[in-house]
Amino acid sequence: MPRLAPPLAPGEETILSVDGLKVNYGAVAAIRGISLDVKAGEVVALLGANGAGKSTMLRTISGLIRPRAGAISFADERIDRLPPARIVRLGIAHSPEGRRVFGSLSVAENLRLGAAARPDRSTMEADREGVYALFPRLRERMGQAAGTLSGGEQQMLALGRALMAKPKLLLLDEPSLGLAPLVIVSIFKTLAELKAQGVTMLLVEQNITTALGLADRAYVLRTGEIALSGAASELRANYEEVAAAYLGARG
Amino acid sequence: MNTGFYIAQQVINAISLGSLYALVAIGLSMVFGILRMTNFAHGDMMMVGAFGTLVLGWLGLPFGLAFLGGIAIGAIAGVIVERTAYRPVRGSADVTLLLTSLAVTYILENLGILVFSSSPRNFPIPDWMNEALQFYDGQITFTQINVATIVLTAVSLGFLGWFVTRTDAGLGMRAAAEDLGAAQLVGLDVNKLIIVAFAIASGFAGLAGILWAAQSGIVEPDMGFTPLLKAFVAAIIGGFGSIAGALLGGYILGALEVFIVAFLPSEVSPYRDAIVFALLIAFLLFRPNGLLNRTQEVKL
Amino acid sequence: MSRAAAFVATIVAVAVVAGLVAILPQLVNDYIVRVVIVMCISGVLVASMGLGNGFTGVFSLGHVGFVAVGAYVSGILSLSQAAKHSYLPDLPGWLSGITLPFLPATIVAGLVCVVLALVVGAPLMRLSGYFVSVATLGFLIIVNVVLINAVDFTRGARTFTGVPLETTLRWAAGWLVVTVIVLARVVYSPTGRRYLSVREDVIAARAVGIKVLPARLSAFTLGAFFAGVGGSLYGHYLGSFSPASFYMAYTFALISMLVIGGMQSISGALVGVVVVTVLSEVLRNLERGLDFGAFAIPPLYGASQIVLGIIFILIMIFRPSGIMGDREFGLGRFVKRKRA
What we know:
heterotrimer, B: mainly alpha, two-stranded antiparallel ribbon, 4 strands, 4% strand, globular, disordered C terminus, C: mainly alpha, 16 helices
C-alpha cells in the first residue's frame, strides 16, 4: 500500500500544542481555558458529551473560529491568527463533522480539491491511487456525484479528501456519526491502518470504546474544560471514571 | 411569407437575445452561489464594458482590441467593486448585501452620467458587423452582429465549462458555492476564488454589454439595468446559484420575449416586460428553486 | 408612562408641529418651505416603508409602486372636468364625470393601494430573504409597465399634468403627524411585538403561535396605505409627473433615507429623511457648479448621487442599523417606555 502521509517516528516531538485556549460564541463560553498537546505519530482522542466543546476545539485549530484567548502552535509556529487556507497549507487537514463532501462534484473531483492547498502537486495522481487503494469503494464510484454516495462512502471520501492534503496532523470530527455499526468498524480499521503508517490524528468521538480502542491518549472534555486525561490504556481500565467525567455535566 | 421561415427567423432572434441574457445571468448566479448575494451592480458591468470599448476606440485602438479591452475593463471593475464595497460587508445579513449592491449600482450609474452625461452615445462598430446575411431570398436574415453574439457566447460558455470542470480554481468555485466552510477546510483560498468569480462574471457582463451596445448602436449609463432585471428572471427560472440553470433560463427568457412579440397579438407586446416579471413571481411562488437548482430555503 | 401621559405627550407634539407649520412661512423663504414640504412627504413614505421593511424584516423594493398608484389614482380623481377633457379624453364615463376634493381623493388613493397590497402581498409575503426583494421589484416593474401602457388613464409615458397644486405645508405636515401616530401606535403595541418577533426568528415566532403571514401582510398593507397617501401628496405637490418619476431613482432615494436613518425605528426614518434631504439639497447646489469669478467649478451632474451612494455604503459597512438603530426619541420614546 502506498504511503499517504510522511512517516513520522512516534516520539516525544510535540507537533500541536494548545495553551490556555478560550473560545466564545457571542457571550457564551464554549471553551474555558484548555491546554493540550499532540505528539508526532500519536492518536489523541477528545471525548465528551454534546456541547462539551470538542468540535469547537477542532474548528478553532483549523482557523474557522478565532479564539478569545490562548495560543495554538503547530510545529513550533503560532497558528491561532492564521486563515484556514494557511493552516491547511502548514499540514493540518480537517475531516469535518457531518462529512461535508461537495455533493454535486464527483468523487474524483472531491479528492482533487483535497490536494488544492498543497504546494507540490506532482504526486497527486499517485496519492489519489493511494486513497483508492485504501477505499476501493471510492474507485468504483470515482465518476459519481458525491451527494449520491451512502453515508459510509461519504465518510470514506471525507477521510480521503483530508488525506489528499498529505497532512502532518489529521483532525477527525466524529467519523462514526450516523453510520451503521459494521461501517464504523470498517472505518476504524482503516484509521488503525493509517495510525500504523504513522499518521498523527486528533480524533473527536462520542463513542468512547471505539475511540479508546484506537487512541494512544485521550482528553475528556466537559462544558469547555478538561475533566480527565491520560493514556488510553489507563482510561480503558477505568471505564467508570471516564463515564463519570463524561457525564459529569448532567450528574 | 412562409410560416416555416418566419418561425426559423424568430428562433434565431431568440437564440441571439437569449445568449445575452445567459451571459449576464451566469455571472449573477455564480456570485449568488458563493456569496448568497443578489448583486444589483452586476448589470452595470455591461455599461462599464461598453464604455470601455468606446473609449479605447476613441484612443485609436482597432475594434477587435477595443472589444477585448472592454471585456477586461468590465472584469477589473467587478473585482474592484468586490474588493472595496462587498468584502467589508461579506457575511452580513442578506438585506445588507443587497442594499450595498444597490448603492454600488447607484454610484456606478451616476459615475457614468458624470463622465459621459446621461444622454445616449453612438457606439460605432465596423461596417462588416452590420452586414446582413440573407438566406432563402431574404426570408431568413441575420446580421453579422447576431452571428458574432451567438458565436462569442458559445465560445465563452465553452471556456466557462472548461474552467469549472477542468481547473482547480473552477472546481474550487463550485465547491465554495456548495459549502463555503468545507471549501475553507480543504485549504481553498476563498478570497482568491471570489475574485476569480467576480472577474469572470463581470467579464461576461462586459461582453454582453458590448454586444448589446453593438446591436442597439448606443451606450448609456443605465443601459445595464433592464438586462440585469431580466437576468434575475433568467437566473431564478433556471435555479438561482446554478450556472447551468442560468444558461437555460437565459435562453428560455430570450425565446419567451421574442415569441411574445412575434406570435401573440400586437396589443400584448407592450406588456412583454410585465409578463416576464409575472412569470418571475410565479416561479418564486410555485417553483422557487427553479428548474435545475438543488433545494434551498426561499419560503417562510 | 401612563396612557394619559402618552396622550398628553402626543397632544403637545402635535401642538408643536402645528405651531411650527403656522410660523415657518413667516420665518424662512419659499425655497426652504418647499424643502420642508418635500421632507414631510418623504417622511410619510419612508416611515411607511420602514413598517414592513424594518419592523417585519421583509425588504420590499416595491414601495414606490404603491406611491405611483397613489399619485395616479388621486391625480385622476382630482383632475378638473376641463383638464380631464383635454388630457384624458378616453377616460371611461364613470371616471370622467367625477372630481373629488384633495382629502377624499387622497384617502381613496390609499384605499386602492390597500386592496392592491392585499392582492399582491398575499402570495409575495410568503417568500423569504432576497427572494421577496426581487419579487417586489418585479411588482414595481409591472406597475411601471402598466402605467406606461394604460394610456387612456395615464397618458402613458407622457407627462400626466393638470393635477391641482394642493399639497401645502399644512397638508403635508398634517399627514406626517397622522402617519407617525398611527405607525407608532401599531409598532409599539402587541401587533408591533409580533412584527419584531417575525423579523428576528420566523421559526421561533411560529413556535409561540404567531402567524407569520398575517403579521407580514398587515404591515405590508398598512405601509401601502400610507404609500398611496404619500403618492397623492407628492402628485399634488408636483402637479405633473410621469411613470419615470416613480421608478428606480425614487426607490433608491427613499431606501437611502430609510437605511441611513435606521430602519428599525420610526425616528430613524425621520432622521434619515432630514439628513438625506438636506445633504442632497446642499450637494445639488454644489453640483450646478460654483463661480468665484476667476475660479469656477464646472457643473458635475451625478456627483451628489455618488456622494450619497458612498455614504450609504459606509453606513452599510460601519453602522448597518443606521444612525438611530432601534432607538426612538421624542414621542416614540415615551411610547416605547410603555412597552418596557
